[in-house]
User: Fold this.
Amino acid sequence: MSTRPDPDEKVRRYRWPWFLLVAVILGIVLTIVWVLGAIRNVRRIRDSNRGQSTLEPQGRPQREAQLGKTWTNGMVWIPAGTFQMGSANGQPDERPVHEVSLDGFWIDQTEVTNEQFEKFVKATGYLTVAEQQPDPKQFPDAPPEKLVPGSVVFRPPDGEVSLENHYVWWEYVPGANWRHPEGPGSTLIGREKHPVAHVCWFDAVKYAEWIGKRLPTEAEWEYASRGRLAGKPYVWGDEQVPQNQWKANIWQGRFPHDNSAEDGFRGTAPVGSFPPNGYGLYDMAGNVWEWCQDWYLPNYYSPISVKNPKGPDTSFDPNEPGIAKRVQRGGSYLCSDVYCSGYRPSARMKASPDTGLSHTGFRCVRSPNHILKRKGPGSRRQGGGGGEPR
Ligand SMILES: [Ca+2]
Assistant:
């Protein structure tokens, strides 16, 4: 038998400690990575809570926000807080600027799209108001041939016109509705992700009830639109077109006949085509007007601080005194600074709740303690007092 040491045995003897050393080093590296990740998470939670008011935390959504989960299923959590509502530089109905405190709420990240609205219609068989026969009692002066289902469509005139008479560019088109935005023959093909239009306030409320949400109050809408920016003229800041980049789908050119579409869109745009605001919400300026819950009253604002305002009990529009109107916010692709700068976060619009035009849409919100009024697709997920948006 040979007594010479086996050279391979020597190599094996020294190889094992190296493997152990590598394993230890790997363990240390993984631990460091885990600790750094935990630190980053803590910083993210701290940053997401920065700017919140001193109002008490409330319920499950707030806890989720503290865990870094500030959005879910297409909705964004807007933390409770206090802000200055209105503008001293806008229209008279935007004044006075006053302090408003709000509880936290969830809000849709985008406007409700055609494909989302179609799911509602398929599930319920709902007919929008524009698809229904107008009631002759409500339009006693209208000739019978005009009492047909339809909606009002933007039709640009051939040349320059007076801006005093909006009937020049708005036309009642029989057969126009959310499925046929420009009237019979027009379709939603290729516009599945555009915001639904031609929906009136009643239609928007029905959709919201079905999906287990509600329309935002006017104060909630403005608070969310400002995206943590205080007193800024635009939802993205101070400049209308920073670095020559349009930040919203509005009108460029001479309204209403010359639409240069410098922002890339002559009509509605797919939701989310422009950068989001500070809360991660898309199209809080431009694209389509968005219905709010509140009645419209031009002198509703007062200097007094208010909490969770729900709007007035009555409505009055001096331009059309006989018609009660609901608030719309956010402006549309037809907003031009020479006629309507309604895409500013403080700007207020109003319309009869039974009327949706080709630039009228909406998005929904949900409170943590929202109780479903009827069984909808979100009802199974609704547990206890704090519903997570579906
Ligand atoms: Ca545009």
Remarks:
- The longest strand covers residues 289-295.
- Residues 131 and 257 are 28 Å apart (CA to CA).
- The two ends are 79 Å apart (CA to CA).
- DSSP finds five helices and 13 strands in the chain.
